[in-house]
Amino acid sequence: RILYLEGTPRLEQTFLRRSLRRFPDLDLNYRWIPKDTSNQWPVDLDDAFQPGRYDVYILGDLDATALGDEQLGELAEAVSGGAGLLTLGGFQAYGAGGYADSPLADVIPVRMDASRRRAVGSEMANDETQLPGPVTIELARNHPITDLGGDEPDAVWQQLPPLPGANRLVGEKVAPGILALLQTPQQNPLLVVGEYGGGRTAALAF
């Protein structure tokens, strides 16, 4: 049972949803929270973050105020109790989206800077929060979730086209279980995995 919350439905989310729905044992619930409804935030998602309601949560390009501290606190407790959390890149992700000062600050496996906070709806490019493209992806370490097949996993990643851009993450946290799996040639982290209580977490910069 997966809950995917998205703020800016860019093209990528179509492919992500299509991929997840290929598997009959994955029950995907997609919820779009448009940024032009910000005067009605935080939205009320009822029991979405109650223990056992969902097994995995995906946060897309969604400002933290869309959910509010109370529900983000419930989400933190759900992850601590064993749920998974995947955070995706975007203009309102991580510190830019207000998560550095939110109840998810301890949950997300990357360090965040509250001074990078953006106004809701702002999409300024090439600032301290963004890596301008093209962004080359390199395999930082072998891991089952970065194994795309073949005898040389690193070579497979090198064959992929570069990204048009990515979030400039401050860096992965220094704690047991937290690992950077993908990075740029300049060692900017692009995928970081970790643990929080009984749950698992992953932070993507794209």
Task: Summarize it.
With 206 residues, the protein is of the alpha/beta class.
Kindly list the characteristics that best describe this protein.
two-stranded antiparallel sheet; 206 residues
Report on the architecture of this protein:
- It contains 3 helices and 12 strands.
- The longest helix has 13 residues.
- Helices cover 15% and strands 26% of the residues.
- A hairpin with a 2-residue loop joins strand 11 and strand 12.
- The two termini are 23 Å apart.
- The chain is globular, with a radius of gyration of 16 Å.
- It is an alpha/beta fold and 206 residues long.
- Strands 2-1-3-4-12-11-10-7 form an 8-stranded mixed beta sheet. The chain has a two-stranded antiparallel ribbon with strand order 5-9.
Helix tally equals 3
**Derived structural class:** alpha/beta
**Strand order, biggest sheet?**
2-1-3-4-12-11-10-7
Give me the Rg, rounded: 16 Å
Sum up the overall morphology in one term.
Answer: globular
Distance between the termini: 23 Å
The percentage of residues in β strands lies in: 25-35%
The number of E-state strands comes to: 12
Summarize the main sheet.
Answer: 8 strands, mixed
Strand-and-helix sequence, N→C?
EHEEHEEEEHEEEEE
Give the low-confidence spans: none
Mean pLDDT: 94
The level of helicity is 10-25%
